[in-house]
Amino acid sequence: MAVLIDHPCVQHKLAIIRDVETGHKRFRELAKEITKFICYEALKTIKVKEVTVQTPVAEAACRKIDTDIVVIPILRAGIGMLEGILELVPTARVGFVGLYRDEETKLPVTYYERFPPQIKGGTCIVIDPMLATGGSTVAAIETLKDNGADKIVVVCIVTCPEGIELVEKAHPDVLIYAAAIDDRLNEKKYIVPGLGDAGDRLFGTSH
Ligand code: PRP
Ligand code: URA
Question: Best label site of 19, 48, 52, 136, fewest CB within 10 Å?
């Protein structure tokens, strides 16, 4: 299932990040800001514990986060979202999955994986700005599950019905949070209207 973050503050930033005239410096800033807002929503239901805190005046009944949070950026574009979630949860641990989409087959190729042991029992948040065919996200989730993760959510900036369907079919237990659910994929498997190649726009590697 996909949850759309339709808040005006997110949608305003999305309008700017989509704009072809937005350069890589602003693109990076916006990816971070949008991620922070989406993750704020995505973490709404994480496990908390009741604690009592002594204020200078009296005891206060409070709640603290009671789960290890492990953020897993899909390399390379997922790196552009990392700072945003770490501002929200500075104690989060970070794992990595290195994947790229083969330009011919459009299928994901895994070239790197490294996870902290807390993926077992903790809450894993997979971040990648684009969930297009869904192949990369499904591969990342499979790798995580193979390594013992069982609580996984996905946070992306833009997705589309095809990608959501693939993830839902393969991993119905995984929720997807996104700022946009676009119309479709084009013949190159790019999201339409999307925002182009997120990795290139983040890192300034487009021609
Ligand atoms: C992009 C994007 C996703 C993937 C989405 O990465 O960041 O990881 O494509 O496509 P999919 O849903 O069809 O699998 P890309 O392969 O371009 O690599 P990059 O992050 O190194 O730019
Ligand atoms: N990867 C991107 O960066 N953009 C898309 O639209 C699809 C895959």
Answer: 52
pTM for this entry:
0.96
How far is it, in rounded angstroms, from Cα 195 to Cα 20? 8
- For atom 5 of ligand 2, the residue with the nearest CA is 190
Distance from the Cα of residue 78 to its chain's centroid:
7
Phi and psi of 58, rounded to 5°? Answer: -165, 180
pLDDT in tens, 34-51: 999 999 999 999 999 999
| Residue appearing with tokens 């969930």 | 131
Would you put residue 51 in left (φ > 0), alpha (ψ -120 to 50) or beta? beta
For ligand 1, whether the C-beta of 203 sits within 6 Å is: no
